[in-house]
Amino acid sequence: MAKRKKTLNVAMIGRGFMCRCHSNGWTQVARFFDPPVMPVMHTLCDKFSEGLDDEAAKWGWQNTSTDWKKVIHNPEIDLIDIAVPNYLHAPMAIEALKAGKHVACEKPLAHTLSDARKMLAAAKKAKGKTFVWYSYRGVPAVATAYEMVKAGKIGKIRHVRGLFLQSWADESVPLAWRFDKKLAGSGSLGDLNAHIIDMTRFITGEEIVEITGAIGETFIKERKKMVGLVAGGIAEGLKKGKGKGRVTVDDASLFLARFSRGAVASFEAARQATGNLSRSGFEIDGTKGALRYYFERMAELDYFDATGDWQTRGWTTINCSHGGSHPYADAWWPDGHQIGYEHTFTNAAYSTLRLVAGKKPVVPVPDFADAYETQRVLEAVGIAASKKRAVKMSSVR
Questions:
Q1: Are the beta carbons of 39 and 31 closer than 8 angstroms?
Q2: Is the peptide bond before 75 cis (omega within 30 degrees of 0)?
Q3: Helix, strand, or coil here: 137?
Q4: Helices (H), 211-268
Q5: Phi then psi for 255, rounded to 5 degrees?
Q6: What is the tens place of the pLDDT at every residue in 79-119?
Q7: Is 342 in contact with 332 (CB distance < 8 Å)?
Q8: Residue 343's closest CA among 330, 364, 328, 354?
Q9: What CA–CA distance (Å, rounded) separates 302 from 334?
C-alpha cells in the first residue's frame, strides 16, 4: 500500500479573475503532476458574502469566511494565497508570515516600494516560505528560453525588448480599483510591465541597473464611478454608478533600461492598444543567437542560431510541448497538443508545492526577495517618468 502523502491546507483570500486562476491551479495540480505534498482547498475568504458559498462550491473550496484575520490565524491553515487588490498585499502577507504560514501572493509584490520593503523584512524573519504568482514563468516556452540562455545558446546578450499590450480599458469601463493609485500603486506599469520585467530578469539571469528614460501616460482622465462586484474577467460585470471619478494611474508605460552585463532594453505596456487583446512577449538578441516569444503563440519559441553557415541560417520555431525536453510539458498532453493560460498557474502551483516540501522547483519560482527586485524597477520607472530623468537602480532601495 502506497504511503499517504502529507497535505497542505490552502486558504484563498480574494475573489474574481485571479481567484479563478489560482483556484484552477490548486484544483488541477495533483491531477496532472505528482506533488510531494497534496494541496487541500480549505477556505475561500472574501469581504463580500454575496455568492461566496456558490463560488467556493464551484471551485472546490471546503469552507468560506469573510474575516481574513481569522482565516490567517486558523491553526488548520498552512498556506495563505493572496489574490486581492495590491494595497492589501502587505497587511495580509505580513500577518500571515507572523502567524507562521507560507504565503503565495499575487503580483506585483505590493502597491508601493515601502510596503514591498516591509513584506521582504517580514519574510526574512519568518519560518514560512514565500511565493509570488509571476505565472508566465510556468509557460514551457518561457522556461525553455531560460534554460537555453543559461546554457549559453545565444551568447552574450545585447538587446532585450519586452511588450505587453491590451485593449480592454476603453471609455466604457468604470472606475475599478485598478484605476486608483491608492489601491493599485500604478496602472499598466505594475499590472503589465511587471510581468515583462520579471520574465526578462528570469530568462537573462541579469538585473536592470538603470532606467534611462520613461513615459507614463493617462489617456482617459475620468471614468464613471463603479458599483457592484467584479465578475470573472478583468473588467466584466462592473456596473456604472452616478458621477465620475479621477483616474490616478497610467494607461500606458514605456521605458528604456540597461541590464547588468551591458544589454540595452526597451519595455512597453498599454491597456488601450487597439487590436491587441493580450499581446505579450519578448525578443532577446545575443552574440551567438536570438530568441523571441509572443503569448499569442503560447507553445512556440523562436530561435535563431547565428553560429551556423549563411546558406541555412534562419529562424527556427520550436513547439515547446515535448515531455522531457521542455519544462512542465511531460505532465500534460502528447506533443503538439497545446496547453493554455490556465495551465501556467497549475505549473506554478506544482513548483510551489515542491519548494514547500524542500525540493527543487522545475524552474526558479520568485519569492518575496526576487519579486522585490521587480518592485524596485517599477519604482525607478515611476521616478524616471515623473521627473523626466534617468534613474540608477543603486539609488532606489
A1: no
A2: no
A3: helix
A4: none
A5: -155, 160
A6: 999 999 999 999 999 999 999 999 999 999 999 999 999 99
A7: no
A8: 328
A9: 21
Three-point CA angle 282, 288, 289, nearest 5°: 35
Instruction: Give the cell for residue 224.
Output: 464613471
Q: Which amino acid is at 316?
A: T
- All three cell numbers of 190: 505594475
- Ordered by start, the domain boundaries in the chain are 6-132, 156-286+367-387
Q: Is 311 strand, coil or helix? A: coil
* Phi then psi dihedrals of residue 323, to 5 deg: -60, 135
Residue 370 has pLDDT above 80, yes or no: yes
Residue 57 DSSP one-character state: H
Domain 156-286+367-387 coded CATH 3.30.710.10: no
Instruction: Out of 39-48, 125-134, 236-245, 313-322, pick the least confident.
Output: 236-245
**Residue type for 41, please?**
M
Domains 6-132 and 156-286+367-387 equal at CATH topology level: no
Instruction: Give the list of residues 6+ apart from residue 4 with CB closer than 8 angstroms, or none.
Output: none
Q: Among residues 189, 194, 169, 190, which one has the least CA distance to residue 273?
A: 169
Question: 384 and 390 in contact (C-beta within 8 Å)?
Answer: yes
One CATH from 3.30.1240.10, 3.40.50.720, 3.20.20.70, 3.20.20.60 for 6-132: 3.40.50.720
Residue 51 CA from chain centroid, whole number: 27
Which of these, 373, 375, 362, 368, lies nearest to 131 by C-alpha position?
Answer: 368
Give the separation between CA 123 and CA 158, rounded to whole angstroms.
34
CA distance linking residue 70 with residue 40, whole number of Å: 18
Q: What is the mean pLDDT of the chain?
A: 95
